[in-house]
Amino acid sequence: MRNxxxxxxxxxxxxxxxxxPVASRAWAQDKPSLLVLSIDSDKVNDKQKSSxxxxxxxxxGKYEQYTLMDTPAIDLLDEMVxxxxxxxxxxxxxxxxxxxxxxxxxxxxxxxxxxxxxxxxVGSKAVVxxxxxxxxxxxxxxxxxxxxxxxxxxxxxxxPTLVMVTIDANVEAAEVFVNQKRLGTTPLKVKLKPxxxxxxxxxxxxxxxxxKLVVAAAEAMDWKATLKPIPTQVEKPVVVPxxxxxxxxxxxxxxxxxxxxxxxxxxxxxxxxxxxxAIVTGTVVAVSAASETSADVGTVRFSIxxxxxxxxxxxFE
Length: 317
What we know:
The chain is of the alpha+beta class. It contains nine helices and 14 strands.
């Protein structure tokens, strides 16, 4: 049963939002919504009522802390009957405003001699601002949009003095952003309220420049950014070590086939050693025999260098 009631309440809220799209949008704003009712009076005609309503909304709009809602075309007497009101007090006005999703309601009434202006907080049903003073018929509009509004809402906020700021750069057509909002390209002239801002200047192929800029009251100022090109990356040349040319020389068959040369093998030098020993022995014997019968007949010369073995010779005289 409870879930059914909750569902019905949700459906009712959605239906009301669809029927009153303007009111639902205003309700969702960060600023509180304010419903300004048309003046409650039978002493002024419809044209005057419209003029008074517009003047009051313009005056209230200067405070900037409210979101103004569209004024519904309603008969306040019928509203009092609907909500069983005796007078336009906090309870009655909060009921009218709550039905239209307003957070505040501004009421005005004129009985021919006295002008009444009342601001009600819908949530608390409290009257948060009240004005009542004598007013002539031809002064109702001025009083309602002037002294009455000031009495209810407080002194009109002073309009801040805007300062002319010129933003430039060392390159043309650079984009200018103030508080992350793009305002144009350099050179740019813009009016800003006094205060601190984050100004950034950007352009393709350049490093962005961003700086905090403090704008003083009533003092025009110039600011210029110096953009530097984005450094290009230079590739380092690849150093290839020189390749040593192969040694050109004659190779034997086995070396060409991947084996060692014959004169680099152990068996070759063993054979050479044995052969040399035999030659030496034979030579010694021959010399000894010859020495017994005759004089020296020749000279034998040997080399112990393996690479010069082929040059060993025997000389005879």
